[in-house]
């Protein structure tokens, strides 16, 4: 489904979560997007190829051509997660970054224990030019 969350960075920012299964409707939200957080399950190697295809689709969308992108490799709290180095390699992130029109940043996170959350919030402040 879709969820809305408001953050204060210090100004109010609305974060819209659209799950991977909602991919077909993602384009209807692109025009409202000021920054993009693309979350990947780093503990599920069977989803890597479909996640990569979805990421490439998002990056090639004209309305997002200059929108900063943060790729979050999530679930690093699980014992079976793939490291940032492994995920970058599997996604061929070096090639993606060199071909993309928008700035792309990558971080490891754990939504469960909060690892990387401060870095995500700092990235949002910077990307949205919020002091």
Question: Would you summarize the structure shown here?
Answer:
InterPro entries: P-loop_NTPase, Small_GTPase_ARF/SAR. This protein has four helices and five strands.
Supply the CATH class.
Alpha Beta
Give the C-alpha Rg: 14 Å
Shape: globular
Given helix and strand content, the structural type is: alpha/beta
Largest sheet: 3 strands, parallel
Q: What percent strand?
A: 15-25%
Q: How many distinct domains?
A: 1
GO molecular function: GTP binding; GTPase activity
Binding site for GTP: 20, 74-77
Pfam families: Arf (PF00025)
Protein name: ARL16 protein
Structural summary, described in words:
By secondary structure, the chain is an alpha/beta fold. It has a single domain, classed as Rossmann fold (3-Layer(aba) Sandwich), CATH 3.40.50. The protein contains 4 helices and 5 strands. It has helices at 48-59, 84-91, 93-99, 117-127; strands at 2-8, 12-18, 36-41, 69-74, 104-108. The strands form 2 sheets. It has a 3-stranded parallel beta sheet with strand order 3-4-5, with helices on both faces. A two-stranded antiparallel sheet has the order 1-2. Strand 3, helix 1 and strand 4 (69-74) form a beta-alpha-beta unit.
Keywords:
single chain, alpha/beta, 3-stranded parallel beta sheet, two-stranded antiparallel ribbon, 29% helix, 24% strand, Small_GTPase_ARF/SAR, GTP binding, ARL16 protein, GTP-binding, nucleotide-binding
Itemize the secondary structure elements and their pairings.
Layout: E1 2-8, E2 12-18, E3 36-41, H1 48-59, E4 69-74, H2 84-91, H3 93-99, E5 104-108, H4 117-127
Parallel strand pairs: 3-4, 4-5
Antiparallel strand pairs: 1-2
GO molecular function, one term: GTPase activity
Protein name: ARL16 protein
Binding site for GTP: 20, 74-77
């Amino acid at each position: 489904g879709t969820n809305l969350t408001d953050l204060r960075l210090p100004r109010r920012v609305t974060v819209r979560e659209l799950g991977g299964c909602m991919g077909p409707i993602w384009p209807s939200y692109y025009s409202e997007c000021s920054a993009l957080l693309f979350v990947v399950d780093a503990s599920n190697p069977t989803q890597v190829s479909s996640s990569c295809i979805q990421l490439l689709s998002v990056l090639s969308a004209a309305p997002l051509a200059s929108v900063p992108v943060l790729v979050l490799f999530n679930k690093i709290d699980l014992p079976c997660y793939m490291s940032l180095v492994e995920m970058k390699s599997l996604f061929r992130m070096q090639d993606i970054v060199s071909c993309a029109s928008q700035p792309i940043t990558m971080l490891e996170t754990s939504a469960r224990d909060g690892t990387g959350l401060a870095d995500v919030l700092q990235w949002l402040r910077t990307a949205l030019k919020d002091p």
